[in-house]
């Protein structure tokens, strides 16, 4: 079965967002990945691997035969396990780098083309922390190239802004892109995970920000946020369903973003995954099943695609 968007890009699914039972690398990982890998609607999978080495081996068998592009979701691994790549304590930073090396190895066994990481809340000494982060990225990207010189894994950085807490160190998108451009002179297998929700949380304009950083983007997350009501349980970085009342991104906004991408030439460029990957990322709300959340997200995407097609031709 083929879908019209595959002419332009591969549609991905951020599996641990929808299926929260596996976000900590435990739970029914094999069943969930089998379900996601069997869905022809998606051409790419983003997943977080497994803690159990035996499960890792089974995951590798299943995802490698899926025929889908594979991306390792390493952000939660970093944050939940306190692998802070810009820790001012050099011993803790080195341990974080060592732990991320382990998931680079794991991602390689799965056949992933991209692995993304994140920063933590900014300390008082931001300058020193940025130097630590740059050192960590340089070490990790070099390790990925040593591991697979001919086809190295791309290490991608996802920038954030947490509205309910202190802002993260790796925040404003243009500054993140500047940091990556500097490092890419010696470490070409670095990139940016461009998350539509995070851009809006940073109070940045989505189209102009994309155009300013498109040269460093490794892949894209299509995600929503709610910013207008700080009392809402969906306020901030909760990635609610597309089109939720009071939120920022619905069907028309998705369609408009597809138009921005096409006009900027995004669909004609080559990425670590070959064709670009755009992934649906919705966190399943409380008291709703992953299957319902996923079904609604697919319907919203399909409606957005039809709206985009109607304006494109």
Please give a quick description of this structure.
With 313 residues, the chain is of the alpha/beta class. The chain has helices spanning 15-18, 29-37, 53-64, 75-80, 90-110, 126-147, 173-184, 196-201, 206-213, 251-263, 290-312, and strands at residues 10-14, 44-47, 69-73, 114-118, 154-158, 190-195, 217-222, 277-280.
Protein model, in words:
This protein is α/β, with parallel strands linked by helices. The protein has one domain: TIM Barrel, CATH 3.20.20. It has 11 helices and 8 strands. The protein has an 8-stranded parallel β-barrel with strand order 1-2-3-4-5-6-7-8, surrounded by 5 helices. Strand 7, helix 10 and strand 8 form a beta-alpha-beta unit. The longest helix is centred in the last third of the chain and has 23 residues, at 290-312. It starts with 9 loop residues before the first strand and ends with a helix. The model has no long low-confidence stretch (mean pLDDT 96).
Radius of gyration: 18 Å
**What's the multimeric state?**
single chain
What is the topology, as strand order, of the major beta sheet? 1-2-3-4-5-6-7-8
Shape: globular
Query: Structural class of the secondary structure composition?
Result: alpha/beta
Number of domains: 1
Query: Which architecture name does CATH use?
Result: Alpha-Beta Barrel
Helix content: 40-55%
- What is the H/E string? EHHEHEHHEHEHEHHEHEH
CATH topology descriptor: TIM Barrel
Poorly predicted runs: none
* Strand content range: 5-15%
> What's the tally of helices?
11
Q: Which CATH class is shown?
A: Alpha Beta
Largest sheet: 8 strands, parallel, barrel
Under CATH, the homologous superfamily reads Divalent-metal-dependent TIM barrel enzymes
Mean pLDDT: 96
């Amino acid at each position: 079965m083929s879908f019209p968007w595959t002419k332009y890009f591969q549609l991905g699914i951020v599996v641990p967002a929808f299926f929260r039972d596996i976000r900590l690398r435990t739970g029914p990982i094999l069943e969930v990945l089998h379900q996601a890998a069997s869905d022809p609607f998606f051409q790419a999978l983003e997943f977080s691997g497994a803690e159990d080495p035996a499960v890792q081996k089974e995951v590798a068998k299943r995802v490698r035969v899926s025929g889908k592009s594979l991306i390792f979701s390493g952000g939660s691994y970093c944050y939940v396990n306190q692998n802070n790549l810009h820790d001012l304590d050099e011993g803790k930073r080195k341990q974080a780098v060592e732990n991320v090396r382990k998931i680079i190895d794991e991602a390689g066994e799965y056949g992933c083309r991209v692995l993304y990481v994140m920063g933590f809340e900014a300390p008082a000494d931001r300058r020193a922390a940025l130097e630590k982060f740059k050192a960590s990225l340089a070490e990790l990207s070099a390790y990925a190239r040593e591991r697979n010189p001919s086809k190295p894994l791309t290490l991608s950085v996802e920038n954030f802004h947490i509205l309910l807490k202190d802002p993260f160190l790796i925040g404003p998108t243009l500054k993140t892109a500047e940091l990556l451009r500097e490092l890419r002179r010696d470490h070409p297998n670095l990139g940016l995970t461009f998350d539509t929700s995070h851009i809006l949380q940073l109070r940045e304009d989505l189209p102009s920000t994309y155009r300013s950083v498109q040269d460093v983007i490794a892949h894209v997350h299509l995600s929503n946020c709610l910013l207008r009501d700080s009392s809402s349980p969906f306020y901030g970085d909760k990635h609610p369903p597309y089109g939720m009342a009071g939120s920022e991104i619905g069907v028309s906004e998705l369609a408009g973003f597809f138009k921005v991408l096409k006009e900027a030439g995004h669909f004609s460029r080559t990425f670590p995954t070959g064709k670009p990957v755009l992934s649906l990322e919705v966190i399943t709300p409380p008291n709703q099943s992953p299957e319902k959340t996923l079904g609604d997200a697919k319907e919203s995407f399909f409606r957005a695609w039809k709206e985009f097609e109607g304006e494109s031709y």
